[in-house]
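SAMPLE LOG
Freezer: B-3
Tube label: C17
Construct: single chain, 395 aa
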Amino acid sequence: VYINFDTMPAVKEDFKRTKEPLKLIKSMELMTGKKIIPTSTLIVLDEIQECNEALNSLKYFCEDAPEYAVVCAGSLLGVALNRTGASFPVGKVDFMTLYPVSFAEYLRAADAQLYHSYQMIDEVMSVPEVLHQQLIDAYKLYLVLGGMPEAVSAYIDTRSWAEVKVVQDAILQSYSLDFAKHISNKDIPRVFQVWGNLQNQLAREDKKFRYADVQKGARAREYEGAIEWLCLAGLVHRVSAIETPRLPLSAYKKDNAFKLYLNDVGLLGRKFDLDAATVLMGDNLFTEFKGVMAENYVLQALVRQYGSQHYYWTSGNTAEVEFLLQDAGKIIPIEVKADKNVTAKSLAYYRKQYLPKLSVRLSTLNMRKDDDLLNLPLYLVDKLKMLVESIELNE
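STRUCTURE (predicted):
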């Protein structure tokens, strides 16, 4: 039974009249013409942020009618903005986060045989060269496609990059329309400015976010609210700078030095207006963007596996490592290289300075482990946590 509080606004009145689950069940049955059976009917309350009363009713479903299965969908930011003093059912709701389709999930949908082989890679090993190349090609395709479910579906159904482009452009446009829906009028221009400027920030070599690039003379306090909104909405990910890699990393981050990546690498490619053929064929025109595309792709996988707080290490103008992970009481530096060229000195400098027990280098080279350095193909970043844990168990 599907209820959408945005497209079916009259339903809100039923939740305003009563919080009793059985009365609400009866109302939903009458409205949809479907019998709601505890053991076999799933109740879906979509866009729940549009109805505080429905949000509060979850407490009573949990306490008085736990035999009914209720799933809610909606923007957590929207919930926060529309609460208007209503209490949240603390401890009565289990939360799950919906991420873009991962590379592994894309494989499962697009190529069952290749996905089966991919799943068999469950330890540090050299991947057979034929399989390695097939997965590299699939990774390059994913860079263009990204993980927006509708874009993935459009590609699998049509194999048309034109169709994918239409979908991605529509998603970017719908994000912009949501700004006006959820943000106060005075803050809308700054959110638009930051959102519209993200690709320019990431196109620079150091990728560090600069307020002056958004608007000449801009200061942090004027745009911090806009950046925080985009982060809370899940549209961008903030990666904070750290100069002293000590635990906990959160205590050593520099609040005024950070990078902003998009929630999806495919959408970043659209913001760069990259043509699919440019990426897939490795055109020289793509050279200046392949690094940031690889980093955005890696970050998406790290967010799924390690949560939303991420950091990079910088030593002034001397060296920089793309990501630092805090895992099981250790700090793991992660270097991201977009191709086979892994001769950069930043990770070597970090390892010499701080002697980490494990370091990770992501590139298009095959997998191998050299002492404390794990060389991992980019297509295996979804398996990073599993592989790191297997290394720790075997040590």
